[in-house]
Amino acid sequence: MADAAGIYAREFPYLDRYIQFGIAQARVLSVEFPDSPDDEASGEHDLLDRIEAYLDGTEDGFTDVAVAMTMRTDYREVLTKVREIPHGESATVQQITAMVPDRDPDKQDDQRLVREAIATNQTPIFVPGHRVRDGPGVAPAAVIQKLRSIEGI
Asked: DSSP assignment, residue 86?
């Protein structure tokens, strides 16, 4: 089931919405937070069970989840560093900038690049942009707040 291509969604009352994701070639392509799922979405997937456990308080960084990183190389470098922020911890844009090779955390252009990369994140939760305190959120603000609350950040 974990490798089956398709669209998967489940309603999560704590978030007051669905989490929906697409998988192809055993990689998560996208994550969305719709009010209602696509008609073809299945509610059965191992990752949905893990997300449910996570929302119930089980620590899970989802670092083992294969994510499609089909984007510009510099954005991929940033989002790879965002994935390294552990569950329950957070970082600033400046700290992420310092982690990315050949980027200066004191340069506004490099910080802007980090913000732009985070803003293009197609797989929130699995690439945990909610752990970047001053970064742009791609999930709805209420979802970001609840994810931070679950992790104590």
From this structure: P
Residues pairing with 18 in the sheet: 11
Which residues pair with residue 28 across a beta bridge? Answer: 23, 67
| pLDDT surpassing 60 at residue 1 | no
Q: What is the pLDDT of residues 25-72, one digit of tens each?
A: 999 999 999 999 999 999 999 999 999 999 999 999 999 999 999 999
Tell me the sheet residues that pair with 6.
23
Report yes or no: 124 and 31 within 8 Å, Cβ to Cβ: yes
Report the SS3 class of residue 44.
Answer: coil
Are 69 and 80 in contact by the 8 Å Cβ rule? The answer is yes
Helix or strand (DSSP H, E) at 145: helix 141-151
Give the Cα separation of 82 and 61 in Å (integer): 11
Classify residue 137 by its DSSP letter: P
132 contacts 93 by C-beta, under 8 angstroms: yes
Number of residues that this document lists for the chain: 153
8-state DSSP, 13: T
Given this model, what pLDDT does residue 145 score? 96
